[in-house]
């Protein structure tokens, strides 16, 4: 299974974060085994995820599974919980008894809440026990359902976030820049985004490399491709490349190949 081309969201239930955490967390989720497997049939033996530079917690509530990262395969054991940055292609190999609870942060969100700069997470798998209290992880594993797990995790993250003495100006500016790019139809150049957040191109480059780990140009290009491809897969008959800053369908197609390694015609939408 290829992320976006095949909708892996079908096998998960989701919850949005509270308002205070919304700028920093994209979602809480949990794999929904019976409904999920029925939805995707036999296609879901593995899922290839494309770079997003979004720190993600994977709390293992089920059986062991494998993850491929940087051409190396890792076994994630029972009750072993991990943190990955998703700065490169990652493939997770799924078994029928898999059961994962997931928290996906926005770029810079982990630093804003827990004070952990995501650059330190690049190209590796981090033991989540280095980040979260063991007691919290045990309580989440023993919780009776997704809603209870989410309440436990969100309450903990909110308490830690509220104890932060200062708010990082770098993170705020990066979030503002991403917002400007997104709401502009993803057509603005880096220099134009910089103007809208009242900094120079040199400054915005420094901030993005400090918070996310890549240049704003590279991040915006990746964000546009992922957003456009998601829209294309969802409503192919209504897809308009201009809505995402592309000149035409050929321009969009080139980005799909660059980020996925596959042509649109190779996938049944």
Question: Which properties best describe this structure?
Answer:
269 residues, alpha+beta, Jelly Rolls, 2 domains, six-stranded antiparallel beta sheet, four-stranded antiparallel beta sheet, 9 helices, 10 strands
Tell me about this structure.
With 269 residues, this protein is α+β, with helices and mostly antiparallel strands. The chain contains nine helices and ten strands. The chain has two domains: 8-163, Jelly Rolls (Sandwich), CATH 2.60.120; 169-266, Homeodomain-like (Arc Repressor Mutant, subunit A, Orthogonal Bundle). A hairpin with a 2-residue loop joins β5 (65-69) and β6 (72-76). α5 packs across α7 (201-211). It is globular, with a radius of gyration of 19 Å. It starts with 11 loop residues before the first strand and ends in a 9-residue tail after the last helix.
């Amino acid at each position: 299974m290829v992320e976006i081309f095949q909708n892996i969201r079908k096998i998960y239930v989701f919850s949005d974060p509270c308002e205070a955490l919304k700028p920093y967390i994209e979602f809480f989720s949990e794999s929904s085994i019976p409904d999920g497997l029925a939805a995707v049939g036999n296609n879901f033996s593995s899922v290839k995820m494309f770079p997003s530079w979004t720190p993600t917690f994977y709390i293992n509530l089920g059986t062991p599974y494998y993850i491929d990262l940087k051409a190396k395969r890792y076994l994630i054991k029972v009750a072993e919980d991990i943190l990955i940055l998703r700065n490169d292609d990652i493939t997770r190999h799924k078994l029928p008894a898999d059961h994962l609870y997931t928290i996906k942060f926005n770029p810079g969100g982990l630093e804003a809440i827990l004070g952990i700069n995501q650059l330190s997470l690049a190209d590796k798998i981090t033991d989540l026990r280095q980040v979260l209290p063991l007691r919290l992880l045990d309580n989440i594993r023993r919780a009776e359902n997704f809603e209870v797990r989410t309440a436990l995790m969100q309450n903990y993250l909110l308490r830690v976030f509220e104890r932060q003495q200062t708010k990082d100006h770098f993170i705020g500016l990066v979030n503002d820049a991403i917002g400007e790019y997104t709401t502009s139809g993803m057509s603005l150049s880096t220099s134009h985004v910089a103007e809208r957040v009242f900094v120079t191109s040199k400054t915005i480059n420094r901030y993005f490399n400090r918070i996310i780990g890549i240049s704003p140009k590279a991040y915006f290009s990746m964000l546009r491709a992922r957003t456009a491809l998601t829209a294309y897969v969802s409503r192919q008959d209504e897809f308009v490349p201009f809505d995402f800053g592309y000149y035409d369908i050929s321009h969009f197609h080139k980005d799909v190949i660059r980020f996925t390694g596959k042509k649109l015609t190779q996938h049944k939408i």
